[in-house]
Amino acid sequence: MPTPTLQDWFHTPLGQYLLEKERAYLDDVTPDIFGFHALQVGLPGFDLLRENRITHRVRVATHGEPDLYAKGHELPFATQSIDLVLLPHVLEFGDEPHAILREVDRVMMPEGRLVIVGFNPWSLWGLRSALGFSRNQHPWNGRFVSLLRVKDWLALLGFDVSAGRLIGYAPPFDSEKLRRRFGFMEPAGDRWWAVGGAVYMLQAIKRVRGMRLITPAWQEKDAREKALVAAAKRQANDPAKPAAHLRIVK
Question: Which terminus of the chain has a lower count of CB atoms within 10 Å, N or C?
């Protein structure tokens, strides 16, 4: 019998509850991200970029049925070639989460977009994992990485966090009946206990410090000519200043 995976857990009632919320968020934010190449690392059985408009989308994983088999810290893509990267629950189940982020940084284009989905250790879900309940099963066997630590890692790599939110405030009961009984915690948690969501959804932009956008030569020439003409007009309209001969540089 094959070993159960995180993807298998997402087919359980509790996993479906969370997957529905994650998809709702991703379906809302990813359509406005443009480019030529998009990459989803992990959970290959779910097209989490289904609403994104980038034509070339690739799902990468080490198991299941992805488009390409590869490890998160050894991506077979050229440097600065990917416009959008999605990491759904990859960092908490990777042996070297920081190495995964470094590899993602390598393959991403400048100003590319990164979306990270991770379990929040400072939540009721994180508490269940820490207490050891079902510790040998997904997702409780993962090493949940805090939101602050992920932000620190991103800052070291030069990413700017642009947006994010937390979702899933109901206790992680396997019983659907119990979860419905605590359904009131969803709107209450989002308002009064925002840091306690089961999952954080984080968006970041890759910045390249000191990068200068190169414009066509004809644009630079046109800008210089406009500046000189404007200066000549200002001097001609000021009688207190002697007339000067201005030559337009071609």
Answer: N
